[in-house]
Amino acid sequence: MINRALLPAGGGENMLHCTDMTVLERQRARIKWQQEQQQQQFQLQQQEISYFTELADVFHQAGFHEGGLSEVVTRSVKPDPGLVDNGWNNDHVVGYGVGLPYNNGLGFELNYGAISRTSSCPPEAVAAVAAATVKGSESVVSDKISSGAGRESSKKRKVDKIQNNSKVVAEEDTRDKRIKGCAEQGESKITEKNNNKNSRNNNTNKNNNSNKENSDETSKDNSKVSEVQKPDYIHVRARRGQATDSHSLAERVRREKISERMKYLQDLVPGCDKITGKAGMLDEIINYVQSLQRQVEFLSMKLAAANPRLDFNVDNLFAKEAFPACSINFPTIGMSSDMTNPAYLQFNPAQQQLLACCGLDMGIDPPDMALKRTTSAPVSIPETFLDSSCFTQTHPPPTWDADLQNLYNVAFDQGRQTSFQTQPFTGSIEASNLKMEM
Amino acid sequence: MASNQSNCDVSSQQEPNQLRKKRRKSTQTTESHLQNDGTGEAKNQPTVRWRTNTARRIYSSKLLEALRRSRRTTSPRGEKTREVRETADRVLAVAARGKTRWSRAILAKRARLLRVKKVKKPKVGCDRMLQESEKRKKLPAVERKVKVLSRLVPGCRKVSFLNLLEEASDYIAALEMQVKVMTTLSEILAVAGGGAGVGGGSSS
């Protein structure tokens, strides 16, 4: 958070961009004077002082437009901390408390008045006070913000970080372009200061953020700094009427992430549209994963049985007539979705036809796997084969999955000839029995 | 391996083609829909990763090879199912390219097995856990289910809820693909075997 917060690049430069030229000219003069001093002494404090004086002048003389600031505020989240930084600094000038990161633009308006009041003071005194208070408060604030944001960041995914970085880079690049459009020296001053602040408040010791560099280089350094910075923090705004505590914000971020992933899982798992709440969803997810794993088990069994065919070309006793019979049946089977009893009933005629076709069929089972229910395997298997292949063409995957799931459960049931009367979704018991038999 | 493959039936080599033809229609719509997400993460979403045609093709070809290879090494009598399933899971994990926790866990399991035999320590812990759970009041329902889910997804026992959900979504997508591929594979094998058998029967 501090990394972003102390990118006043956005705030300061934008504000300058919106101000009158007279102000800029004055700033330029002052900046030249200050530059000379800096080149002599090269200290951060002086930069800060000059920065603050410029800001004070900006606020006071330019009659700063709310529109400009609000426009910046309403932009993407990244520049806001920059403004926040200005806000903080301004606050410290006046001696206000900190807590701005999550305020809306209204907070800044208050600051204007505050600054305008104080700008009448001699700039040096103001600057001295500002410089003195800023550092202490910044450190405090940085600790507070980083503690809250650290939690957020720790839970982040890399993509978010990359996005944040890219956003920051984009913002800084646009700012840098505007810098060049404006009085370059003035902007370069501020960018240098921003760089210094970044380097100071980052844990990365970026010595390339020195003040000696020109504006071109500083703009590049800005982007470099932002790119190379430690994975950063997602910015969250406290919504209206909600707690602005960093804890609650982090919790809200976490909750939102969880709900987002639950929604995604809802799309993935069939039949979860009507279920709300974590417990129900988790139940469905667990059931679905279990059924998928069971299907894999069943299929691996089938594959293990069919494997010899790969190499040995064992004679298959499947009658070819079995397939036309299946092909007649599966449209009716295919049309039923979310089935329990409908599929059940439709399977019956299919099964009977298949029984007629391949009565003595040993099916896929090789001789070494004794099959007690000879008709069960061929009956269930071709239906599932053709249904699945048909389904891939006719049904969208979610429905297919549901159907396949149902089909398998029903097929397990159908496989046992004695169990015609039982409910289709007997699940694991049937499957395990079938496996043992096969 | 090359010689083995050349000895295999022509029909088995035609399998990937048939698989491709069958799968094309269903996957097109999902891909296009998901890639228009606009989030920038569309390519990383599990459904996009696991429902593409290429993914299926890759998985099916790898699975075929692995299965043929496992056929070479004679398998124990009663454990063919387990072997096939483990092969399939391993190939699935390889197809995941190590980006997910569960895939790495599956591969690590196999590597660990090859090196050291599994120690039976967890059983003691399980007994104790069962006893304790009877005495203690039950955990909140959600937490219990989270535990169950974490046990289902390989390698996700001590993972935070958030990451567990993410892993679960990817795992579900991968499992779906696995099921589809294996269904079509087994079907094709049966058909191929059936065709060859009938052809042989009629010719003789």
Automatic annotation (TrEMBL), chain A:
This is BHLH domain-containing protein. The keyword Transcription regulation applies. Its main location: nucleus. Residues 169-195, 213-235 have a biased composition (Basic and acidic residues). Residues 139-250 are annotated as: Disordered. SMART domains: HLH. The lineage of its organism: Eukaryota, Viridiplantae, Streptophyta, Embryophyta, Tracheophyta. Pfam families: HLH. InterPro entries: bHLH_dom, bHLH_ZIP_TF, HLH_DNA-bd_sf. Residues 196-212 have a biased composition (Low complexity). Keywords: Nucleus, Transcription, Transcription regulation.
Automatic annotation (TrEMBL), chain B:
Residues 126-175 form the BHLH domain. CDD domains: bHLH_AtIBH1_like. GO terms for cellular component: nucleus. Keywords: Nucleus, Transcription, Transcription regulation. One of its GO terms (biological process) is regulation of DNA-templated transcription. It is found in: Nucleus. Residues 1-17, 27-55 have a biased composition (Polar residues). GO terms for molecular function: protein dimerization activity; transcription cis-regulatory region binding. Pfam families: IBH1_N. Residues 1-84 are annotated as: Disordered. SUPFAM superfamilies: HLH, helix-loop-helix DNA-binding domain. This is BHLH domain-containing protein. It comes from Salix udensis.
